[in-house]
Design a protein that fits this description.
alpha+beta, Rubrerythrin, domain 2, 3-stranded antiparallel beta sheet, about 15% strand, rod-shaped, binds zinc ion
């Protein structure tokens, strides 16, 4: 369960709260009881998808490029996905 950081724009109170992903964001400040709480994004929760990083991780999980889609098959040994490349 991710931990979200909240800050009250009314009194400046700062707090964290563990919530399920589907839970509604907290709006009411536990200190001043005003609906001025905002959720702080990107600090400490470790739950942020970082565009390129997410792509790279996903790509590494996949298999090597299919031989039929490799443009350097049989010509360049640098392509490890080619069946004709030496190992
Ligand atoms: Zn407050």
């Amino acid at each position: 369960m991710p931990t979200y950081e909240y800050e009250c724009k009314g009194c400046g109170f700062h707090f964290e709260k563990s919530q399920s992903i589907t839970a509604e964001p907290i709006k009411t400040c536990p200190e001043c009881k005003k609906n001025k709480v905002v959720r702080l994004i990107g600090s400490g929760s470790g739950f942020i998808f970082k565009g390129s990083g997410f792509y790279a991780t996903d790509y590494r999980k996949g298999s090597a490029p299919a031989p039929s889609s490799c443009p350097s098959a049989g010509s360049k040994p640098s392509c490890s996905g080619c069946p004709g490349s030496p190992k």
